[in-house]
Specification:
It is a single chain. This protein is of the alpha+beta class. It has one domain: 2,3-Dihydroxybiphenyl 1,2-Dioxygenase, domain 1 (Roll), CATH 3.10.180.10. It is about 15% helix and about 35% strand. The chain has helices spanning about 15-25, 90-100, 160-170, 225-235, 295-300; strands at about 5-15, 30-35, 45-50, 60-65, 75-85, 105-110, 110-115, 125-130, 150-155, 175-180, 185, 195-200, 210-220, 245, 250-255, 260-265. It holds the Pfam family Glyoxalase. This is Ring-cleaving dioxygenase. Keywords: Dioxygenase, Oxidoreductase.
Length: about 300
């Protein structure tokens, strides 16, 4: 079995409207689902991605308005990376500058990255890639030839880098590419979400809170494959959770030896299971077991809108 790469990345933030404004108005992603955290339904769960919310494009957020700031460090995803078309970096430098977002440039594995932080301090980077289809979602003066395609990859800040590398290669089936100074790189065959870098040098221990990644999810093509991974994880002593129904995919969770929370999520059924494709993200969607409490949620959740 081989994962295709990143299914989604989930992070924690404070203000939901600030979150929506940045990821839709600045980065040009589509809000494809407005729902609640199924485990803590007093909080939104917001999903952003390409036009249809394909696996490999989705970043999700739990907005907790009064939650203290976290600290990015070990046992976390350190940086979330997005892929943009070749020749797009100059456009994004100007766009970030026009929106008052400070950035820096750095090179890793012979690729140039624009690195910046979102309003909550989440570390984000952009890199030019040939792979991946253009994002057809049109918004906010971002031409298709410059629009974010989806994930380019992620940097993992593992407390046990070599053991995390072992899971990526020997459990999830990623290909080891090379080592460069402080990083190991792994790759999958997918066009998006296909490069994972593990940072080798230790940093401060991460603290959960606003501005940090909660977990990273890997793709399983279907429920049968997910079941096989769950069985394998149990045999290897990783104690995966039971399969959880997330409406738009099914999930299992486990912690890798480096302390990072991993999820394995199915590609299907996707985000059009409860909304028409042209209406994604427009209404608060609830799972069937929470629908009887809709009035309560709509009265207590802060109003948000896509500007």
């Amino acid at each position: 079995m081989r994962t295709s790469g990143i299914h989604h990345i989930t992070a924690i933030v404070n203000d939901p409207q600030v979150n929506v404004d940045f990821y839709t108005c600045v980065l040009g992603l589509r809000l494809v689902k407005k729902t609640v955290n199924f485990d803590r339904p007093e909080v939104y769960h917001l999903y952003f991605g390409n036009e249809s919310g394909e696996p490999g494009t989705i970043i999700t957020f739990f907005p907790w308005p009064k939650l203290p700031k976290g600290r990015v460090g070990t046992r976390q995803v350190g940086t979330t990376g997005y892929a943009v078309p070749k020749g797009a970096l100059d456009f994004w430098k100007n766009r970030l500058r026009d929106h008052g977002v400070s950035y820096s440039l750095h090179i890793r594995f012979n690729e140039t990255y624009i690195t910046f932080e979102d309003p909550d301090g989440l570390k984000v980077e952009l890199v030019e890639r040939e792979e991946g289809s253009e994002n057809s979602w049109k918004t906010n003066n971002i031409p298709t030839q410059y629009a974010i395609k989806g994930f380019g990859g992620a940097v993992l800040n593992s407390a046990q880098p070599n053991q995390t590398a072992d899971i990526l290669e020997n459990m999830l089936g990623m290909e080891f590419v090379s080592r460069e100074e402080d990083y190991l790189r792994f790759k999958t065959d997918a066009p998006l979400g296909n490069r994972i870098d593990i940072k080798l040098s230790p940093s401060v221990r991460g603290l959960a809170g606003a501005g940090t990644v909660h977990h990273i999810a890997w793709r399983a093509k279907d429920h049968d494959e997910q079941n096989k991974w769950r069985k394998l994880l149990k045999e290897k002593g990783y104690k995966p959770t039971e399969i959880k129904e997330r409406n738009y995919f099914k999930s299992i969770y486990f912690s890798d030896p480096g302390g990072i929370l991993f999820e394995i999520a199915t590609d299907h059924p996707g985000f059009a299971v409860d909304e028409a494709p042209e209406e994604l993200g427009e209404k608060l969607m609830l799972p069937s077991w929470l629908e009887p409490k809709r009035e309560q949620f709509e009265a207590t959740l802060p109003p948000i809108k896509v500007n």
